[in-house]
Amino acid sequence: MNRNTAQNSIRPWAVIFWLLVWQGASMLFVALWPNGHLLLASPVSAALRLGELACTAAFWRAVGGSIAHIFGGFLVGCVLAVALAVLSARWHLVRELLYPLTAAVKAVPVVSFIILALVWLDSRSLPLFISALMVFPPVYLNVLAGIAAADAKLLEMARVFRVPLGRRLTGIYLPAVLPYFRSAVSLALGLCWKGGAAAEVIGLPSGTIGERLYTAKVYFQTPDLFAWTAVIVAVSVLFEKLFLALVDALAGKAGL
Amino acid sequence: MELHIKNLCKSFDGRPVLENVSFTAGPGVTCVMAPSGAGKTTLLRILLGLERPDSGSTPSDVRWSAVFQENRLLEHLDAMGNLRFVLGAALDEPAADALLTELGLGDTAGKPVREFSGGMKRRLALARALLAPSDALALDEPFTGLDEENRARCLALIRRTAEEKPVLLVTHDPADAKSLGADVIKL
């Protein structure tokens, strides 16, 4: 492990330190105010609440509902981004046409898109749309950069030997694009869960994590708030690991 | 097949690189010799269709096979994978295996090209050019990085191929031209 990797990885002692800070702060709130436990739930109470919730069918329905919307949006965004990156690499006009769109999606706050989209879409479609929107710019731009990074000398070789497009795609473009796609997916999965959860909290589709988060906020159920937030983080990390493992397995199968 | 090259001219940024180059090449080896920067590689690139000449004519419907100045191999694939990339379903595996063995690459199955030495990569680039279906062969410094033994093996294979089709060889070494009994064109 090199020095930078060691510096960027999460160390158990640092996690324990911050959990202790959180526990200390919640105990301080309880000591200072009669209803201090409502202002900041302790990590212990959040963990206990998470355990209780995980024993209910409604919990798993909410998790499943959110995964279906948000991961569905991720897949739609990915497919669109890759397809349009290929078209943009082939036709300069498509790239010029899409440039303002990607710049706008990157610059405009996600909440503006959520409120605007809520005017046109029903609350169930909203997280799917927002997740796809969040995924689009990083995947599109990275795949486009990967295509541009394909070795021009190898492409010339393929042209001289009249290698068909299919083999050029798998032999030259795929190895060039895959590292870019991998880092884009890693970034995009985090973004789509953040954006998708925000869309659920605002749109309130029934039977989702976002709806449960909103309910927890309205009724000052702060242990629930932390428990559901932990679920979002856990599901986001899990999906990132699973998807990257799938990409790595495909790359390994292709000998990359 | 005969290749007729007539009055080929090419300049870069107003600096002429090729001026009225004309020659005819039939089956056998035609050796293009010139000092560095005199346009040898540019000539091959024009013939391969990778550059457009400013004026002059080249044969248009020739199917070329080539060893480039660089090896231009897919580093993540093994030797057979590189041959399969170019030849696809047309790859005759026993014939490819025999050629790889002849070039001293017989025991490299499953080893990605990125782990090959410079000389091994050069020999694989030559194997690819020899196996690919073609009307003519363009070889740009194909012996770079080869020891005497492997150089002799490659010369023998080129000599054999040149009996059937035109081979254009770019080299600095007059001994190569002599050994192959080549016609020499000086730029």
Work out the strand percent of chain A: under 5%
Count of discrete alpha- or pi-helical segments spanning 4 or more residues of chain B: 6
- Overall strand count of chain B: 8
Q: Which two protein chains have the largest interface (Cβ within 8 Å of the partner's Cβ), and how many residues from each?
A: A-B, 18 and 20 residues
Mean pLDDT score of chain A: 92
- Give unreliable regions of chain B as ranges: none
**Percent range for β-strand residues of chain B:** 25-35%
Work out the radius of gyration of chain A. 22 Å
User: What distance separates the N and C termini of chain B?
Assistant: 23 Å
Coarse morphology of chain B: globular
| SSE run of chain B | EEEHEEHHHEHEHE
Helix content of chain A: over 70%
Please identify the structural class of chain B as seen in this structure.
Answer: alpha/beta
Which tags fit this structure?
heterodimer; A: 256 residues; mainly alpha; 85% helix; B: 187 residues; alpha/beta; 5-stranded parallel beta sheet; 6 helices; 8 strands; globular
What does this molecule look like?
The complex is a heterodimer of chains A (256) and B (187). Chain A is built from twelve helices and no strands. With 256 residues, chain A is mostly helical. The radius of gyration of chain A is 22 Å and the shape is elongated. Chain B has 187 residues and is of the alpha/beta class. Helices cover 33% and strands 26% of the residues of chain B. In chain B, helix 5 (148-162) links the parallel strand 6 (136-140) and strand 7 (166-170). The longest helix of chain B is centred in the C-terminal third of the chain and has 15 residues, at 148-162. Chain B is globular and about 45 Å long. The two termini of chain B are 23 Å apart. The model of chain B has no long low-confidence stretch (mean pLDDT 91). Chain A binds chain B through residues 153-154, 156-164, 167, 171-172, 175, 254-256, and chain B through 48-50, 63-66, 68, 70, 72, 74, 76-77, 81, 85-86, 88, 112, 128, 132.
